Amino acid sequence: MGNLSRREMLQASAAGVAGAAAAALPGSVTLASAPSQDQINMRYQVFNVDNVQHMLSTYMELNPHVNIEAISVTGVDHQEVATKILATLAAGNPVDVGFACTEVTHLYAGEGLAQPLTPRLMDDADEFMEYYADTSAALSETMLYEGDVYQLMDNFNAANMFFNKNLLAEAGLEMPGKEWTKDDFYGMAQAMTGIDGSFGYGWINRFWGSWMPWIFVNDTNVLEEERAPGGEWFWDTFYAGDERAVGRGGGWRWPAPQANNPKMVEALEFVVSLTQEGLTPAVEIGGGTTLLGFFSGNKLGMTPAGGFWAGGLINSGLEPGSFDTQFWPEWKSQRHQLGVCGPWILDGGGQEDQCWDFLKHYKKREIQDALGHFTPLPLTTPTRRSLNTEERFGQTGVENWRVFYDTIDERPDTGPIAQPVFVVELTNIFTRYTGLATNGEQTPQEALDNMQAEMEDLYARNA
Amino acid sequence: MASETTLGSGRRNWLPAWLAGDTVQGIRRQRMVLGVLFLLPTLIGLIVFVLAPIVVAVALGFMKWNVFRPPEFYGLKNFTRLFQHELVGNSFSNTFVMMAMTVGMLEVFAISLALSVHRFARSRLAYIFRTVWFLPVLLSGVSVAVTLSYLFHTDFGVVNYYLGVLGIDKVPWLVSSDIVRFSVSLATVWRNLGFTFIIYLGGVSALPQEILEAATVDGARGLKRLWLITLPLLSPTILFATVIDVIRLLQFFDEPYVMTRGGPGDSSRTTVMMVYDTAFANLEFGYASSISVILFLIILAVTGFQFLLSKRWVFYQ
Fold this sequence. Notes:
The structure holds two protein chains of two kinds.
Chain A: H1 6-13, H2 18-21, E1 28-30, E2 40-46, H3 53-62, E3 66-72, H4 78-90, E4 97-101, H5 102-110, H6 118-123, H7 125-133, H8 137-141, E5 144-145, E6 148-149, E7 155-158, E8 160-164, H9 165-170, H10 182-192, E9 199-201, H11 212-217, E10 226-227, H12 232-238, E11 252-253, H13 262-276, H14 288-296, E12 300-305, H15 308-315, E13 323-326, E14 337-345, H16 352-362, H17 365-369, E15 381-382, H18 390-394, H19 403-409, E16 415-416, H20 423-438, H21 444-461
Parallel strand pairs in A: 2-3, 9-12, 14-16
Antiparallel strand pairs in A: 1-3, 4-14, 5-6, 7-14, 7-15, 8-12, 8-13, 10-11
Chain B: H1 2-14, H2 24-60, E1 63-64, E2 72-73, H3 77-84, H4 86-118, H5 125-138, H6 141-151, H7 158-165, H8 180-205, H9 209-217, H10 222-249, H11 254-259, H12 271-281, H13 285-313
Antiparallel strand pairs in B: 1-2
């Protein structure tokens, strides 16, 4: 096995289960002519092929010998996308360049699937100075795992509060300022509840977004957090002199669960009380589209979302200017949660050099500017600070669009949602017990005690 | 004859010696080989797409494999673990409960519909009814589940809206552990009713009219005729439909996965969802295979039991 590449090993070990995994294979499209003998064929996984057309065509124009097959893999959330990627792995048909978000960055890095980019970044440091200077240190930190960088980035989303301005006006309220608090939020939720059958606040039972923002502003997390040692090379090279980079290490670690600590219980009790008081509708499982529908239909006054909603709400039929955003309200802190997305290279796939060359093209400002998820409407938030412009977000009518990047720049303590290597199973545990607390079948304390017990078992199995 | 001899001679030139020759034995061998050649494409398909995955799935049940590293032999540990795993037992229990509810509703509704639609057999209405009731079968399970989860939303769903109009309190269709299995079963019935209905419509259409007419002349009418004459005559169709439905519904996945993700808690988590999560979320492909092997054996046993029981109630003319 030692002489086999990862691709060959996977193909050999998975030959028999290919049929079982075939159902999960995504659709694909080839964006170049049939390859000749001299051509290099690369497989690139994306969420939406249309969004990367310009990037691919410009790269293949510059490199006619490279043929890139863009493969679209979608899911309700990033964990679901990861399960599909793993299904392609199980079928022995992995991609050369993948696209992942915070939720699974450590999974791919920790399992040796993604290649560490450290030596390549050091060799090409000059080419990347501008890229990282244009990207907040808090975002870059999420791409580190045990001292090495594993991904580049193009978009992120922190959980901000979105307001339905129609309901806000009907309740006689105005947009709050950045310093607003949990008590302000509570009063506004009360005021907006009941207008034409609407609810003041709504959220969905999932990992990102859900009640996670309340966990963060209550100054805690579902898992204990610490920073891995290392990474000095990265900070010294790309963020020398940047105050916001001081104290950052080799990436985040989540060494143990703490689901039932008193602050967690307090946060869950708060969101459960909102449901019990009728300020929040029944909390059901689902993705962002569920909330999108209810918010667009003027049924929800406030809800957690990121920059992806600026264009998303316009696409779902809301008039520009009928919604706005603000920081999450302050409780014990005003720390926000975030998730960052970008490409990674398959380790052992045999085409790492060409993949790296492709990523160097990918990180260019003009290339990212033309990505379909930023243009014509912003469907997510660019990680490059300079791409967060009035021109881009102004057309959505979101007056406070600067909040999206200010969440990182003005609140540098903003951190990623927990992403240990077993994050997919962790998410299942989190949503299971959240559901039992919000429907009243378990008290928040009971639900979190049970959540803690299962997470401890999960940690023990993965020790 | 001369041409046949020439052909025969030509055949000898390229056929192996044991196959060549115009003797009875030679011709038998040639026919056998020809038969095998005709069967070969089907056999290869069967082996590659049916037998091999089954064998590999069973073999994986004795392995530990997380995709990232080669599989390693794990003995019976996966099987001993699953018998002690509360969540697995719970998923089997959910599957059986939802299967029983769904099959029960499916058979009753489908028979009733088939008998009703059969009354219009000679009218154009029959075409319309058949088409309309069969349409949901053509829809994707996932899109049906997404739509129905909106309809069943506790606070914004259309179902609760109309219940409210009737003065009935909101029902927590998808967020109560007591109700969720019924809600998911109801959604599954809606999508699958057309398939079972068509099976019964075929059965009802084939019922011997002379027996039904004789029963009517003898005074059997209404429910009495249904219970004592129609259903016994329909029993082979009922057996076929229930066997097919039980097998399909013991593999419940689309509706519960999309509508509830197995929640609240684990109250609607089915065995196939458990297999999916274990494999692709927990990356325990060996353990997932062991669960699917047990599910396969259970389906085999249940089907066998249905056929065994059928000797007591199925009436073959």
